[in-house]
C-alpha cells in the first residue's frame, strides 16, 4: 500500500538530510504512528507519501503509483485517494461546516444528491450534524478538527495521513479525535499518523515507527512511545466518551477500501 525504499530527502541549503536512507512498508489496514522529536523528519516523510515533495534518492510507491515518476497530470487523481489532516485544521474560513466537507466532493464532480447524503453521513459520524451550518470560527478547536477529519474521509480514502492532528488540542479533545481515527481505521482505511503525543501512542499500542535525525531507529508492532519507558506514564482517559463515538460504525464507512 505504501512502500518507501532507501529514501533520502535533502533540502536545498541544508547541511544534513531531513531523511536519511529510510525504508518502510505499510500494508492495507495498518495503523502506524510516526514518532520522534520535532525536526526528526515526520512531516518530510508524509509530504513524500502525498507527493507534495519528491525524494532526493530512493523510491516511494503509494497505492501502486511510483511517486518519483508520476506525471503532474495524474497527481490530483492520485491525491483523491488519500485523506489528509493537519495540526492546524486548514478549513476554508468563509464556508460553513457542510460546505467545507462538500467542497472536496464538488471539485471531483459528484452530483448534488450524492454530496448531500455523503456530507450528512460523515457529519453524523463525527458528531457535528447539528453544526453543519456554522462557520469554522464558531467552533471549538476539537470541533474544527472533526470537520477536517470529516472532509478527509468523506471521499472514502484508502489511506488517511494525519500530521500531528491533535497537536493543537487538549488531552480530552484529542481522545475524541483519536477515537474517530481508530474507527476510520477499523472500517478499513490505512492510517499513518505523525505525533509526539506520548499519551496517545502509549494508550493505543499500535505499530510505532520512530525517527531520529531523519533515520528510522525503531519499527515495532503494538508498541508505546518509547521502547523502554522509564517510569510509568499516566494515560488515564477512561470514562471520557465523546458523543461522536456512541454509535456503531455507520454504513457510510462500511464500503470497500
Ligand atoms: P518533523 O515533522 O519531525 O518535525 P520535519 O520533516 O518538518 O520534521 O523536518 C525535518 C528536518 O528537515 C528539520 O531539520 C527541518 O528543519 C528540515 N526541513 C523541513 N522542511 C524543510 C524545507 N522545506 N526546507 C528546508 N529544510 C526543511
Ligand atoms: Mg512535522
Explain what you see.
The protein is α/β, with parallel strands linked by helices. It has a domain at 2-81 and 157-254: 3-Layer(aba) Sandwich (Rossmann fold), CATH 3.40.50. It contains seven helices and ten strands. It has helices at residues 42-49, 75-79, 97-106, 112-125, 141-153, 171-186, 198-204, and strands at 2-9, 19-26, 31-35, 57-62, 65-66, 82-86, 159-163, 190-194, 206-212, 215-223. A six-stranded mixed sheet has the order 6-7-8-3-9-10, with helices on both faces. Strands 2-1-4-5 form a four-stranded antiparallel sheet, covered by helices on one side. α3 runs parallel beside α5 and α5 runs parallel beside α6. The radius of gyration is 18 Å and the shape is globular. The relative contact order is 0.18. Residues 231-252 have low confidence and may be disordered. The structure holds adenosine-5'-diphosphate and magnesium ion.
Q: What kind of sheet is the major sheet?
A: 6 strands, mixed
Q: Largest sheet, order of strands side by side? A: 6-7-8-3-9-10
Give the C-level CATH assignment of the domain at 2-81 and 157-254: Alpha Beta
What form results from the Cα inertia axes? globular
As for the CATH topology of the domain at 2-81 and 157-254, it is Rossmann fold
Strand content: 15-25%
Radius of gyration of CA atoms, rounded to a whole number: 18 Å
Amino acid at each position: 500500500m505504501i512502500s518507501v525504499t532507501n529514501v533520502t530527502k535533502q533540502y536545498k541549503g541544508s547541511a544534513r538530510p531531513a531523511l536519511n536512507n529510510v525504508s518502510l512498508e505499510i500494508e492495507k489496514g495498518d495503523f502506524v504512528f510516526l514518532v520522534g522529536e520535532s525536526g526528526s523528519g515526520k512531516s518530510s516523510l508524509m509530504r513524500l507519501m502525498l507527493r507534495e515533495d519528491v525524494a532526493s534518492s530512493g523510491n516511494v510507491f503509494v497505492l501502486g503509483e511510483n511517486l518519483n515518476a508520476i506525471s503532474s497530470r495524474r497527481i490530483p487523481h492520485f491525491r483523491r485517494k488519500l485523506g489528509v489532516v493537519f495540526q492546524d485544521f486548514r478549513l476554508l474560513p468563509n464556508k460553513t461546516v457542510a460546505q467545507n466537507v462538500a467542497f472536496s466532493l464538488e471539485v471531483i464532480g459528484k452530483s448534488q444528491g450524492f454530496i448531500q447524503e455523503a456530507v450528512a453521513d460523515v457529519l453524523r459520524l463525527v458528531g457535528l450534524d447539528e453544526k453543519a451550518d456554522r462557520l469554522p470560527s464558531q467552533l471549538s478547536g476539537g470541533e474544527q478538527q472533526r470537520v477536517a477529519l470529516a472532509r478527509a474521509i468523506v471521499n472514502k480514502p484508502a489511506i488517511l495521513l494525519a500530521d500531528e492532528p491533535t497537536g493543537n488540542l487538549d488531552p480530552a479533545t484529542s481522545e475524541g479525535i483519536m477515537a474517530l481515527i481508530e474507527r476510520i481505521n477499523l472500517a478499513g482505511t490505512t492510517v499513518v499518523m505523525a505525533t509526539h503525543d506520548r499519551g496517545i501512542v502509549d494508550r493505543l499500542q499500535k505499530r510505532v515507527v520512530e525517527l531520529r535525525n531523519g533515520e528510522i531507529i525503531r519499527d515495532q508492532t503494538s508498541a508505546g512511545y518509547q521502547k523502554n519507558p522509564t517510569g510509568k506514564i499516566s494515560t488515564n482517559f477512561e470514562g471520557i466518551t465523546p458523543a461522536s463515538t456512541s454509535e456503531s460504525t455507520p454504513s457510510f464507512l462500511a464500503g470497500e477500501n
